[in-house]
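pinging the channel bc i need a second pair of eyes. not urgent but kinda urgent?? the chain im working w is below, pasted from the shared doc
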Amino acid sequence: MTILNTAIIGGGAIHRCHVNALRQIPNVALRALVDIDSVKGLKLAMGYQCRFYQDYREMLLDDSIDVVHICTPHFEHKSMILAALAAGKHVFCEKPVGMNGSELVDIARAVEQAKGQLGVCYQNRLNPTSLRVRQELAHGGLGKMLSIKAVLTWSRFGTYYTDSPWRGQLATEGGSLLINQAIHTLDLMQWFGGGVTRLKGVVDSGELADVTEGEDSAMATLHFANGARGLFYATNCHTTDSPLLLEIHCEHGSLLLEHNVLWRIKPGERLKLTTDDSPDGSVKSYWGLGHQQAIRRFYHALIHPGNRDYTDIHEAGKSLTLVEAIYRSSQLRQWIEINN
């Protein structure tokens, strides 16, 4: 069987999730690592026994590279995706796929014309609890969905931004809390609710106002395509990273995700359905193990062209659209209609 040769752009913390996943996929080999920091990059490449490049454009000239993983700051995603697709590579990119709707349009157009495929990492969709929620809702035993409540209270101190100055800056991150941390929660909400038709939101900054141009807290009311209502709150001002609290209220009961455990609650019944796997300690706890499944699915699609079971540009664009809509709603202080 043909070996798929892979390169990773970006040697930050998240790249280790990609390395760990690639090592578990048969007939896939990490051949190159790219990082602008030559000292760090060379050390990592030596450890992985692969080539090192300081300039990703030089790596793209290597015809032996089949797949490129992008693990870089947000503002670099669009240019790197376009360049990699133009070079005939497949691309797997960390979220967000771009920083705004305009970039999303340009990337989607490039994907339509490219030979390679583009996958985007929304690993939380593949958490056991997320998959079970979808299963329960599809089964219909709880009846019509009425509302979804999501509360995300995480912690980011000033050094998180000052140590990586691209974070929290509108020109380089595209925002802050919403586009970086809470985008996964918004993605799950719209995924469970079948898409969002309109929303009204507010963003603000309190504890982190001195270190970030973007928001450290946000709230929104969402209307879903299935008729349900969504209530969303997120902040980076907590003193710890609390697990996501998610409640889906239906006609005949509820689904409750609490402390990484999913419960089905009906009158007189509280049944534990599943839990999320505990990370092995090599990655941050709130990343979970979904990276492995997301990357595995993407490579499965490359090997089996008829399979598209991964988050593509269309799916990735939905949560980015919501983020941009909340920013706009907060600025205009009005409801925003969503065109999916």
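so The longest strand covers residues 145-153. and The chain has ten helices and 15 strands. — does that match what u expected or am i reading it wrong
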